[in-house]
Amino acid sequence: MARGATPSRRLSQVIAATGATLALVVVLVAAGDLYRRYRETIVDAERRTAILAQVVGEHVARTFEAIDRVLQVSADAFVDHSRSPTATSETAQERITAIHSGSPMLQSLSWIARDGRRVAGTATVQQVRSAGASDPLIVHQEDRTLGLHINHTVRAGPMSPWMIGVSRRVESRDGTFVGIVDGIINIDYFLATYSDLDPSVASVVTVFRDDGTLLIRSEGQGTFGGRSAAGGPLFAVLSHAPNGTIEAKSPFDQQTRILSYRTVAGLPLIVTVSFAKSEVLTPWFASLAVTGGLSLLIAIAVLMGTAWLMALAAANERTQRDLAAATKRADAASRAKSDFLATMSHEVRTPMTGIIGYSDLLYAAAGDPKLKDYARIVSASSRALLSILDGILDLSAIESGRLTLRVGPLDPVEIVNDALAVIAQLALDKDVTTELHVGKSVPRALLGDRDRLRQVVANLLGNAVKFTDRGRIDVAIERVGTTEAGETIQISVTDTGIGIPKDAQSRLFQRFSQVDNSISRRFGGTGLGLAISKHLVELMGGRIGVESAPGRGSTFWFTVVLPAAPETAAAPEPEGERTGRVLVVDDNVSNLALVAAMLDAVGHKVDTAANGKVAVERVAETDYDVVLMDVNMPIMDGFEATARIRAMADPKSRVPIVALTAASTPEEADRCIKAGMDGHIGKPVDVEQLLSTVADLIRPAPVVAG
Length: 706
Description:
By secondary structure, the protein is α+β, with helices and mostly antiparallel strands. The chain contains 19 helices and 22 strands. The longest helix is centred in the N-terminal third of the chain and has 77 residues, at about 5-85.
């Protein structure tokens, strides 16, 4: 800056530099944000195509394995027919029709003798093979070691759908070539499965033979049937990378595609799933127009404002008043621009900072002094979300009529004490005292659903603490009657909180309802708790109600009818520590480590397995006291693994198996029991339930007299 510059000139120079810097910052921030979104969009598309390619590859493998089993069964029947002195064409047709009827994947099934004669078949039209397709009879005559042969596409006519020819060699028991079993697969079977793989972006599924011949394409099949991609970019990388993701131009529609491919194990097939890059980037182009246009407008506005301020400063140099006014307006404009940029930056950075920051901290090296605090934040947030989800699931179960009670022994006083212990610290923090009053005639041994009863009590106590800033909360338990159904118990919760107007009380037990919107804004909550509590109380044969007035607190009360529990003998003392060897099976590494740590902490010896196949092998090799089995896993799920374990010889077949599954509905629990499992634990895993379940299933060590 020149020494002789006037204050007006110096001000103009500062304004010019500031405006240019702000404009540049806006453009750079927008460009950086757009590039980040671009990379995230591409990486997300690559991830989704890889997942879909794996799903399609597994489906193709399972489908052709099933088809090959049908061909093998048909081949055995063909041999039996050729050896039978009483066989006729009618019996041959009946046999092959019966086999074909059990395989909806096959369009037709035929027996072709070695001389080319069609012995029997289910095709309704003469099969016509597309140009370039091989004659399966000749193929199998020339190569007796060939198993399943997957031919080129097949078409019965120009208006007919494309189909895939499959065949298998048929030999008599002395090795004599009898002929072939020839099948036709309608590709519509595959297309119906792949039509809606990813609704967010139109995915194209293709299946090639390993020589590059196109068998299936989910888009434009009538145009591309029978074509080859052997010279394309996909087959250029297959030799050194049998599975992967590439970005290349499709030889079929000439579009640049994000393509994931997988070689199907044991079959001469390659499957691909691809997204057109232009379609994947459509949302990004929309954000480019909005963000780019907005940043450009902001930059132009900043520059125009800068020019205006410079001109205003120069024009107002004659008087100090004009200069002061111009400076004030410039400051105001600068603050407005700064506030806008700060707001825009905040809105972009806040969610990313929360996600990335907490993720990095949670996965930071052990010993970080702040780790426990961040873990506590994540845990509390997760539990709050779980509470909301549980409420939604309960509501769904109520609406579908699937919410049932699990009856067992309970002590109503103990349940209320447990609920009070949960809210004790929160009440203490708010300087609210709590007191329990138990009637003399209240029975302590009853039958009912202790978890659901605790849920109702906890909900009423939670509301009382939430809406009471100071004062007290009194809980009373009384026996108010006896009927043939059992004892009628009344539990009431009285607080000195804000109270509820009379005209609003009728809405309290309705779903998603609160006294007014300000309640939700000030205190939070979904408005589901009292509605669910009302349904639970009614399931237990009781009623729920409220007495309240604004500023005078509220009394929520409910009654339940609970039968008396039968008298039982005292439980025997445990015979030593009930720990043992436990196998934990889960494909999720985090869940596997968590459950293993819970069990290890109390002395169990823990082995792990990442899928059902490994679990079956471990059980065959090792004697376990309990197996904790995830249900949904790749390679082999928990149901099939359980069936294979139960098929083992005793005593391994009798090992206790407990399901670990995120689906915690009664239907899922029943399905697990019917599959041969001994119990069901829902996710997220409750450590007390886990440990008690395992302890109950482990046989105590025998006591040796000495």
